[in-house]
Amino acid sequence: MFRIAEKKDLAEGLTLMRVEAPNVARRAAAGQFIIFRVDDEGERVPLTIADANREKGLITIIFQQVGASTMKLGALNVGDCIRDFAGPLGRASELDDFKRVCVIGGGCGCAIAYPQAKYLHSRGAEVDIIAGFRTKELVFFEDEMKAVSSNYYLMTDDGSAGEHGLVTNKLTELIESGRQYDAVIAIGPVPMMKFVCLATKPHGIKTIVSLNPIMVDGTGMCGACRVTVGGKTRFACVDGPDFDGHEVDFDELIRRNVIYREEEAAARDHVCNLRKEAEHLG
User: Fold this and answer.
1) How buried is residue 224: exposed, middle or buried, by Cβ count under 10 Å (0-12/13-18/19+)?
2) Is the pLDDT assigned to residue 261 strictly greater than 80?
3) Fewest 10 Å CB contacts: which of 4, 11, 156, 258?
4) How far, in Å, CA of 174 to CA of 74, rounded?
5) In CATH, 2-89 is 2.40.30.10
6) What is the pLDDT of residue 279?
7) Taking 60 as the threshold, does the pLDDT of residue 141 lie above it?
8) Is 53 in contact with 185 (CB distance < 8 Å)?
């Protein structure tokens, strides 16, 4: 069992938790993930590690309460325990050769982009961060990202904070102004990552994306997380989650990610009904 040491609401439906998992924290590296299971009846769900404190044995996760399992996780409080918390899984990001990098996060993807930027900054790289959100109410980690970047650019879809526009607008602006990058790292919604790659490809800029497709066991056995990269089948849980964005078949990934949309909605509604009944009885 893994005890929740801290819980914080970052925005509506967006939660940060720090979980006591010393064995995971001791080995965790930027880009890796964990798989949690709330209880004996729960499904296995992957979440990228947002931060690791080796001294205190804490792993930070950030998640959006959109499905049945993340809603069950969000219902837990400090002192409660999570049944399973396996990791670190996946391959650590390979970032040591980069000296000037643009790290792009979209929405919840900023939680994953942060440790990448933090690692690069700690090694002396010049890091530009572009963080994109729908609106100012959803912005998080602003101070943390400013602390690990040379330049921080905040973009919102509605212009309520930072600059009005998409992350690709700012990326294109920076590239066309003459900014030179060894690599661009993009993490967020699949369509966002696709269009970042379309923006960098004409300029020949290496672009790394972090993929989080449907996943079950996290060991490469089930094949649920397969993605097509460079015309070949790869498994995100063991071959990734980082891949060359210019070789990813994003359209296939988008189709696969919505296969179980109806089942997910049914499970979410079921959890909501149980929650309502519990509140009524309480």
Assistant:
1) middle
2) no
3) 258
4) 38
5) yes
6) 54
7) yes
8) no
What gap in Å lies between CA 68 and CA 42, rounded to an integer? 9
Q: Where are the domains of the chain?
A: 2-89, 100-257
100-257 folds as: Rossmann fold (3.40.50)
Q: Is 63 exposed, middle or buried (0-12, 13-18, 19+ CB in 10 A)?
A: buried
Residues 6+ apart with CB under 8 A from 138: 11, 12, 14, 107
What pLDDT shows up at residue 280? 53
Q: Distance (Å, rounded) from C-alpha 158 to C-alpha 3?
A: 38
Contacts of 59 (CB under 8 A, 6+ apart): 18, 19, 21, 24, 25, 28, 34, 49, 51, 52, 53, 85, 87
Dist. CA 2–CA 21, nearest whole Å: 6
Q: Is the Cβ–Cβ distance between 72 and 271 less than 8 Å? A: yes
- Going by pLDDT thresholds of 50, 70 and 90, the confidence category of residue 240 is confident
Residue for token pair 């590690």: 49
C-beta separation of 30 from 118 below 8 A = yes
pLDDT of residue 146: 96
CA distances from 178 to 102, 112, 172, 201 (A): 13, 27, 10, 16
Element holding 46 (H helix, E strand): strand 45-48
